[in-house]
Amino acid sequence: MMKKAIALLPALTILFAAGCSKKEEQPAPTVTEATAAPETTVPETTPPETEPPKPKLEPGTVQGSNVPGVLALLNRGDRVEVTGYTDETHATVKTDLGTGTLEIWLLRFAGEAQPESWTGYARWNTGFYSDYDLAGTAPTTLKTNTKVEVLEDLQDCYLVSVNGETGYVAQKQVSKWPIGSGAVSSDSGSSGGSGGSSGGSSSGGSATGQDGGDIQMAVFGRLHLLADEVKTGSAQVLADNARLVYRYYQPGETVQLVAEEGFAPELPGYVTILEEDTYVYLPEAWVHRDADPAFESWDGFAGINCYLYDNILLKGQPVKHVYGNTAIRVLWTAGEVSLIQAGELTGYASTQTLRTTRLPVQQPQEGGGGGGGGSSGGGSSAPEWTPAVL
Length: 390
Fold this sequence. Notes:
Elements (H helix, E strand, L loop, with lengths): L1 H24 L31 E6 L4 E8 L4 E7 L4 E6 L2 E6 L3 E3 L8 E5 L3 E3 L11 E3 L4 E8 L2 E6 L2 E6 L3 E2 L9 H6 L4 H10 L4 H21 L3 E5 L4 E8 L4 E5 L11 E6 L2 E6 L3 E3 L8 E5 L3 E3 L11 E3 L4 E8 L2 E6 L2 E6 L3 E2 L15 H7 L13
Antiparallel strand pairs: 1-16, 1-19, 2-15, 3-4, 3-14, 4-5, 6-14, 7-10, 7-13, 8-9, 10-11, 11-12, 17-18, 20-23, 20-26, 21-22, 23-24, 24-25
């Protein structure tokens, strides 16, 4: 029995080892892995559009008729795109600063030859201006026969160079010949009189065909040609401070004045208004802030050389000659220009031609030096201008 037990022992050992081996080969129980939380997809949201900040505004009222609202002042040499015409004198132009209108004589189309400059001579008391408007009192007065180099013809004024400085003079103040040389009949005829009368006559004689008249006719011909052909395309600006006009404003229009700085560039002499998200500039002298005291109109009389115009620049032909001592009513004054009512007409006149009192009646001279003598002296004895009392 002992031998059998000993013989069975190795067999049991093998079976035991095999059993252990099978237990070790059994796969380990599966451990459930922790399931990660599903990613939450946040829907993309577009942030609400924020409107650009707007400036503080205050109301104002336009005081003149056809007051230009300006988008920008263009410079000589700037390029614009002409897209059409609003009338016989204004073209619609597109620029980087916006779309507006320009006077057609301030434009030269690409491909058009620049006219040759020519030498002219200043007449008596010729004003030399920094802007083509020729508005107000000229900063400088040229001496008679001062040489001017005419660079551009801009309808009623010339762009000239005087001793290397460019500026603008009225066409009627430039002669092609020296005054008193006898080359022009109107000049030679007036040169025989007194110094004062010769100056006045020579300045008025510029309408003759020889004193730049041929140049002026050429320009008017070109303008009519442009209107007939409805020419469009690239063009060059011919003058500095050329007004790119947004639109023209009428008396009594309410506008919103920008009362804060930093929202739009400032233009000297202009106030900024906001119209349909567009910044527009109006001549400051023709806008009344509602918060300021109202202008008190006053009654007066027309003085010497009082003419009524339809624009604040007193340009072009006057609407009416308002004779001395005609009763008028001054509705608004903007420095050297006033809005007046004369009878049934309302328009603009030079402030210096308006009076608070009547012109003195000139008494006949004693001694009866002849009717002719009295009449000839009438111009030199004109009373001085009485400043308006506002």
